[in-house]
Amino acid sequence: MTTNRARDERVNSVLNEAGWIVLRFWEHEDPTEVAAQIVETVRFRPQWRRP
């Protein structure tokens, strides 16, 4: 489990540095709540700007 967490943190860091917003969900989470969180994140995300 520790190696998975460390890998996820590395992947999150690389993706965040590339301008991505990382969302992680578990298979047991309510799909309606997951969809709502995705919509909220996309709707209120900072505008992407090229360097």
TrEMBL record:
The keyword Magnesium does not apply. The keyword Cell cycle does not apply. It comes from the Bacteria. Transmembrane segments: none annotated. Keywords: Endonuclease, Hydrolase, Nuclease. SUPFAM superfamilies: Restriction endonuclease-like (SSF52980). InterPro entries: DUF559, Restrct_endonuc-II-like. Coiled coil: none annotated. Residues 4-41 form the DUF559 domain. It holds the Pfam family DUF559. This is Very-short-patch-repair endonuclease. It comes from Mycolicibacterium fluoranthenivorans.
